[in-house]
Amino acid sequence: MKSDTIAAVATAMSPSGIGIIRLSGDESLDIIDKIYRSKLNKKKISQCDSHTIHYGYIYDGEEMIDEVMVLLMKAPNTYTKEDTIEIDCHGGVFVMKRILETVIKYGARPAEPGEFTKRAFLNGRIDLTQAESVIDVINSKNAFALKSSLSQLKGSVLTDVKKIRGNILHEIAFIETALDDPEHISLDGYNEKLLSVVNNERKEIQKLLDSSDNGRILKEGINTVILGKPNAGKSSLLNVLVGEERAIVTDIAGTTRDVLEEQINLHGISLNIMDTAGIRNTEDVVEKIGVSKAKEYANKADFIIYVIDSSTALDDSDFEIMEILKDKKAVVLLNKSDLDVVTTKVEVEKHLDKTIIAISAKENTGITELEDKIKEMFFHGEVSFNDEVYITNIRQKNSLQDALLSLNLVVQSIEDDMPEDFYSIDLMSAYESLGKMIGESVEDDLVNEIFSKFCMGK
User: Fold this and answer.
1) Vertex 451, ends 448 and 455: CA angle to 5°?
2) d(CA 120, CA 3)
3) In this structure, are strands 222-228 and 303-309 parallel, antiparallel, or unpaired?
4) pTM of the full predicted structure?
């Protein structure tokens, strides 16, 4: 079936050294033959070997638009598995638009967001998890997120899910065959064998699900909230971690009224840090809203940094914060260690079982110890990426949860000694849920929604 030819600017629409206009579809070679003239020979690009680069000019009729390099890639060995052309031109916004207009004039149509990757998926070159990893690569915020996305792009999730689906499908086929031909295939004692298989696949799915929290952290960063009483040094700490004066610091308690958000990269780990209003009882209406927000963000945080002014005594506000911290990943910082110490590590330990570090945001001491502790808490002391598969996508996580639920029903049916038909129904449901995850069984609306989030030239 003939496909229409799409075109888009594949680089940012801003002045740069180079711009790329990409074409994909059955008319790509005809279009480039009409608008390209070689600097070196008269040969048409369509007659050249695939995966070659050509130097010349783009013309609209007799008007020369730009001096270019053209990359020729013939189907099926391309990103979309279609004939593909990339025009490398000078990176001016006007010249990129002018070449795109010329390409469209001679037979292409503007690509929709993500349509190149969508075609790669629809043409069977990549599965849906790989397609989603493309946008994750583009949006990577740190080295670990990039490596995780590249791992998915290579098909790490697809490999694991296909293996689980294959094992489930084998059992479905066996049950259906046995039910159709009971004279030759017996199901005696099969329950025990099926239970072993299903339990193994449940473990594999659970392993993928267990990776989702780490996957989210790798992809999005650690949502970190700085808590403490007014004037404890929270904003000073934020400025030290960010490396510049982002928060207003004064000796006046209650200076921070709202939540100030910053993102920092800590040796390859992204921390989404929120400096919050100091927690205390106050009659100030605006400050009271800030305190309420601080508590709300703390309850949702992955990690809390609790800053105590060690030059003052603990009070009811501190004990209120400690209650919030009890079931959270947290570190306690005894700030202002350069002053006379009133609240000691021993005193805090009486009320809270968390790591306690003495720091001075003013003198920039103790910060390295804090950074090392964060690495230890979230990456077991080693900030490195291994070959483990991480689930970083909520859609994929939901599909895995649906599959696990179906397998749990199979186990329940076995324990209740239900007829084999029940096993087959729930096994098929698990198989289809995993199929939705990798795109082998997915509705058009979902596909369109996924690719609508991509940039135009991808």
Assistant:
1) 140
2) 13
3) parallel
4) 0.52
